[in-house]
Structures are given as C-alpha cells and as structure tokens.
Amino acid sequence: MIYVFLNRILQVVVIALVVATLTFLVTWFGPGDIATQVAIARYDLDRVTPEVVRDIRAQEGLERSGLYQFGTWLGRTITLDLGNSLVTGQGVGATIAYHFSYTLKLALAAMGISLAMALPLGIAGGSRPHSRLNQSLQIISSLLVSVPPYVLAMLLILLFSIYLMILPVAGFTRPEHIILPALTLGLGLFAMSNRLIASSVNTVRNSGYYLFARTKGLPGYQVLIRHGLKNASAPVLTFLGLQFAFLLDGVVIVESIFAWPGIGHLLLESIMARDIPVIQGVAMLIGVIYVSINTLVDLILLRLDPASAQQTTDRT
C-alpha cells in the first residue's frame, strides 16, 4: 500500500504540471487577443474600447512574453499560490474551491441516485440473467446510454418543470434546484452501472468456486452474499471510481443547462474569457482528482484482492 501511495503521489505532481503546461500553451497561443477577451468578460462588449484593452494588457502584464508568464506562474504554483483571475481579480484557489463545492454536491447526489437504482436492480438482473426483469433493464439501460445528456435534461425539464410544474428549471439557491441536474446525471450513470453490475454478478455465478459452493448445499442468496458480491465488486469499484472522477471534473453541458455553478461551468466561462490562471487551476484540479480517485480505488482493491490488485499496480 505504501508503494502504491508513493507512486500515485509522484503521478499527481507530474500529471498536474504536464496538464497545466499544455493548458497554458493552448490558451496563450490560441487565436484572438487575450486582453480583448478579458476586457469583454469584465465590462461586456459594448463598453470595451482600445484604451480599456490597453489598460488591461498593462495591468495584467500581458505584454510580456509567454515564457515569462509561464515562469511566473510556475514559481507561484510551487508555493501553492495559483494567482488571481484575470476577469474578477479574485484568488484562483478561492474561486475553484467555491465552484468545486457545488460540483461535489451534484456528484454525490448523482452517484447516490445511480447506486440506489443500479445496485439492487443490477444484482437482481445478474442473478437471473434470462429473466424478463434483466431483459427489461438491459433495454432501458441501452436507451438511456444512447440519449445524450442535454436531450435527457430537456426531457426532464419538460416533464417536471413545464408539464407537472413541481421542480424549478434552473438555479442553485434552493435545495430542490439540485434534483433535476442530479437526476440527469444519475440516470446516465445508472444505465452504465446497471449493465456492469449485472454482467459482473452473472460472471461470478458461472465461476467454479461459486458452483462448488452451490453443490455443497448452500442456499443461493448465501453464496451470492458471502462469495459472489465480494468477487464481483472489483470491476464495479474501478468503474464507479472513474465515474465519480468524471463527475467531479464537472459536466459542462449539464451544469450550463441548469445554471449550476460548478467546476464545469467555471471552466467554460474561463475558456471563453481566456482567463489563463483559472483554466490552469481547474486543469490541475482535474488531473489531481483522477489520480487521487484511482489511488483510492487501487487501495480498496488491494484490500479486497491483494494478488489481483498487485498485478494491476505492477503493470501501472
């Protein structure tokens, strides 16, 4: 476990720096003038003049070379100072922390909805792979997987907000505002999780040790609980870890549709405004999240199945 932890810590540092460097290069050398984009984001297009653009360029030091800008940012980052937003002037760390708190709430709610549906239905379907229940669940899962998130979001808005008028369309100030975006993400996650759980449970049921336990006279539910679920959990945990990391990155489309102020929404606005410090900070956070969650999943798998997890770690 110590080896896995130290190895992942090194990966966090390397990935964060590589992602931030690539992000800076793409943003700095992208088309358009950074000072102009920042001015538009600050004051709106109608109030932007050449004098305003010139003042912003001088104020933010944008007339300096890209190498100088990157070196300055790297020096601050080593001291854990991510700088200030070019648009709002607020600290990047505080800005990201604020928006990340909303993404975390949305991710936890979506995962809760997904697991509450996928775990019992996936186990039930995998235990009876040829039943009508499993066949119906597979059809529903296939339909949900094929529907893009923005289409599902529109359908839920039409049903619950416009037709039934029981949930707000967008916002984040009241508890009920989280229901529709969480349901949009949760249904998409359920579609994928249900299929994987059912497949894992069915694979375990056909394994030799499972069939041997049944021949000893143990009831089916005892064999499933004592032997089946633990062995079926490894691929499911790995997949759920990746799903949760994906959610914590912030789903840009869903957060934008429901005006949810998460990381994805922040990243989209920062890209439009060419707010380089914020973009780099969010990019670093995304890299850290992926490696951190993968580390946590590896440690859990190492606890559940040391031999299998160690082989995976060695390959990594």
Structure keywords:
disordered C terminus, 0% strand, single chain, mainly alpha, 2 domains, 316 residues, 78% helix, 14 helices, MetI-like fold
Question: Could you explain the architecture of this structure?
Answer:
Mean pLDDT is 81; it is low at 308-316. This protein is 78% helix and 0% strand. It is flat, with a radius of gyration of 24 Å. The chain is an all-alpha fold and 316 residues long. The protein has 14 helices and no strands. α5 (92-127) crosses α8.
Largest sheet: none
Bulk shape: flat
Poorly predicted residue ranges: 308-316
Assembly state of the chains shown = single chain
CATH topology of the largest domain: MetI-like fold
Write the CATH architecture name of the largest domain: Orthogonal Bundle
End-to-end span in angstroms?
14 Å
CATH superfamily of the largest domain, by name, is MetI-like
Please report which band the strand proportion falls in: under 5%, 5-15%, 15-25%, 25-35%, 35-45% or over 45%: under 5%
Please tally the β strands and state the result.
0
- Rg over C-alpha atoms, rounded to the nearest angstrom: 24 Å
Order of helices and strands: HHHHHHHHHHHHHH
Q: How confident is the prediction overall: mean pLDDT?
A: 81
Share of helix, binned = over 70%
Number of continuous helical runs: 14
